[in-house]
Specification:
This protein has 279 residues and is of the alpha/beta class. Helices cover 32% and strands 18% of the residues.
Length: 279
């Protein structure tokens, strides 16, 4: 049963309509497609759903549920950021949803918010200006915020767990991913997921968009999730129709290398385990 719960459309920063994404999912062999537009924030961005458009988004996904009934199971979700004191995935203000994805994009190391996965032309100057080039301040703050989000709860799937790796490839990595202090911080956040029923996604969306060469999370983290008994699901993090189904083999191989034999699928209101090769 092929399923995807991390799907963007033109209600936020997606490049196609929700209807087009549903059609693409059907053609790519999906049985379940969850929409997860970036939820509104207390401040405007170029990629989040505007607050005044939330009712229209809910209505459109509801319409697609009816249109595709019996062929493709459509689910209503949101990808909701955690920003301490401002917004949290568990906020009831977002209304009744089929599921919620929790994300940490924004961090603040004392110089105002910025995104860990923003364009390199913005991130690298921020690194110099706010952290004086000290990468450890970035990942320490990121995993502290991620840990706070997990402890606050109220969501079903945690997105791109080690998103802080986004700018760590290429010619100028800003931290050592094998450094013990970094791994201790990442594993510490991971340990908070034990027994919570929160699903971790293997996210290949940045690969499809040419942003990074490997999925989130890393193999080291995925092995830790396996040891902790944390369930996983595959995520296209699709922003365009062509992203649905892309790099699935890579996700399967990574899951198998970490010791997983099945992935979690949300269907008909409950999570079930499905064999890796059945997705």
């Amino acid at each position: 049963m092929r399923a995807n719960y991390h799907t963007h459309c033109d209600f936020c920063d997606g490049k196609a309509s929700a209807a087009s994404m549903a059609e693409a999912a059907w053609k790519a062999g999906y049985a379940v497609l969850g929409f997860s537009s970036h939820a509104p924030l207390p401040f405007p961005t170029d990629w989040n759903l505007a607050p005044e458009r939330l009712p229209a988004y809910v209505a459109e996904i509801g319409r697609l549920k009816e249109e595709w009934a019996g062929r493709l199971e459509i689910l209503l979700g949101l990808e909701i950021d955690y920003i301490e004191g401002q917004v949290s995935p568990g906020d009831p203000a977002f209304g009744k949803l089929d599921y919620r994805i929790g994300s940490t994009h924004f961090i603040d190391i004392g110089q105002g918010l910025f995104t860990v996965d923003g364009p390199a032309g913005e991130f690298l100057p921020q690194l110099e200006r706010t952290a004086r080039g000290e990468g450890s301040l970035i990942w320490k703050t990121y995993y502290r915020s991620l840990s706070q989000m997990i402890e606050a709860g109220g969501f079903d799937i945690v997105a791109h767990f080690d998103l802080v790796r986004r700018h760590n490839s290429g010619g100028r990595p800003f931290f050592d991913e094998e450094d013990k202090a970094y791994l201790d911080a990442a594993f510490g956040a991971a340990s908070l997921l034990r027994g919570r029923g929160i699903v971790v996604e293997i996210n290949v969306g940045s690969m499809a968009r040419g942003k990074i060469s490997s999925p989130y999370p890393s193999l080291a983290l995925l092995k830790e999730f396996r040891a902790l008994g944390v369930p996983i699901t595959f995520s296209a993090d699709a922003h365009a129709p062509a992203h649905l189904g892309a790099h699935l083999d890579t996700a399967r191989e990574l899951a198998a290398a970490a010791g997983y034999r099945s992935v979690a699928v949300l269907t008909k209101g409950k999570w079930v385990e499905v064999g890796i090769q059945e997705t």
